[in-house]
Design a protein that fits this description.
Length: 388
């Protein structure tokens, strides 16, 4: 049986999203919706967001369109409300109360469009003692206990870029939330507000570990557990050339293959003997230091020992497996992760590069039937260069 496909659009084709421009998890969440086929219109503010990156390289704005609206102007809120009236989802990432003061809060939007899903992305959430405090990823994951789990026990906690808080605990939970609320809105005709707080999502990510902690199977300190580097056969080791190999040989059959290929058969019985973990770690470290990363990669190639080379960001796209899958793609001269996940009937694609502020105003005004977007804009701001 064959399945009909919609080339290059994705399963959210036909869904309209308004993104009030911000930085961090909001734009990433909107990019994910855009990657999945939604028509995402980013409402940029005059002068930009202050993000220190050339907008031509900000791939979190790929597959989107951009208009410029000054929400502090007399008719700025009215223009955004016109967009909200025609949208399925709106995403904003201001501090609590800011959208309301600007005239584009949930009450004002739902008065125009009762079916609208209003997604709110913050670090601390809409309520609570810290709701009005400034913050960034590192502070949110610190408070949840997540940051304190990461790193060596004799060193400060390791900072996992902004992946755990902003994107895993923030963006992905916002996307799950707004899609669930969209399903509800289409079934009932009633929209709602989705409060996606990074402290909530990041805490939720550690659900399994909280269960292990309650059961006595996890120690509440770094580097003392099976999955946090405390286990000598689940961690990283330096090679002769100053590179690293990652080891995850947890199950008995994988561990047996690991010690065999590493040529330390005398440690085959040390897997569950915690008293021998110190000597096992030293033996593993010494063996890895004896050869280069590429040499060890060749040794473990094709095995089930669960060992892999630690690659850099620039190396990753060239790995044979990732290249074969097309995990990365090139668009507009930028190598970037391809949309994920994948769909059998509605494949996704990078359709356009990063939206440039205001460049799509004329097209959005026409496609969404919001002619007032054009008021007060010059030709360049409206994205109409060369059309006169």
């Amino acid at each position: 049986m064959t399945t009909a496909t919609t080339p290059g659009h994705g399963p959210l084709t036909g869904v309209r999203v308004v993104e009030l421009a911000g930085i961090g998890p909001g734009p990433f969440a909107a990019m994910l919706l855009a990657d999945l086929g939604a028509d995402v219109v980013r409402v940029d503010r005059p002068g930009g967001t202050g993000l220190a990156i050339n907008t031509e390289y900000d791939i979190t704005n790929r597959n989107k369109r951009s208009v410029i609206v000054d929400l502090k102007s007399a008719d700025g809120a009215a223009r955004v409300l016109d967009l909200a009236a025609r949208a399925d989802i709106l995403i904003e990432g201001n501090r609590p109360g800011v959208a309301e003061r600007l005239g584009v809060g949930p009450e004002a939007c739902h008065a125009r469009n009762p079916r609208l899903v209003y997604g709110r992305m913050t670090g601390w959430g809409q309520e609570g003692p810290l709701a009005q405090r400034a913050g960034h990823d590192i502070a949110y994951i610190a408070l949840t206990g997540t940051l304190g789990m990461i790193g060596s026990p004799d060193e400060p906690p390791a900072v996992p870029a902004n992946l755990v808080g902003d994107y895993a605990g923030g963006s992905l939970y916002l996307v799950v939330g707004v899609l669930a609320a969209l399903h509800h809105a289409r079934a009932t005709g009633s929209g709602q507000v989705v409060d996606a707080a990074i402290v909530d999502g990041t805490s939720h990510l550690a659900a399994m570990i909280h269960g292990m902690l309650a059961a006595g199977g996890w120690q509440d300190r770094r580097g003392a557990n099976l999955l946090d580097g405390g286990c000598p056969y689940y961690g990283t080791y330096e090679t002769a050339d100053g590179q690293y190999m990652a080891v995850g040989a947890l199950e008995p059959q994988f561990y047996d293959e690991f010690v065999t290929l590493l040529e330390i058969p005398e440690h085959a019985g040390a897997r569950k003997d915690w008293a021998r973990w110190g000597e096992l770690r030293e033996a593993v470290a010494a063996r890895f230091k004896a050869r280069t990363r590429d040499e060890w990669t060749a040794v473990f190639e094709g095995s089930d020992a669960c060992v892999a080379p630690v690659l850099s960001l620039s190396e990753a796209p060239h790995h044979p497996h990732l290249a074969a899958r097309g995990t990365f793609t090139d668009h507009g001269g930028i190598t970037q992760p391809a949309p994920a996940p994948r769909f059998s009937a509605t494949p996704t694609a990078v359709r356009t590069g990063p939206a440039q502020p205001g460049a799509d105003t004329a097209d959005v005004a026409r496609d969404w039937d919001v002619p007032d977007l054009m008021k007060g804009l010059d030709v360049e701001d409206a994205g109409m260069e060369g059309l006169e």
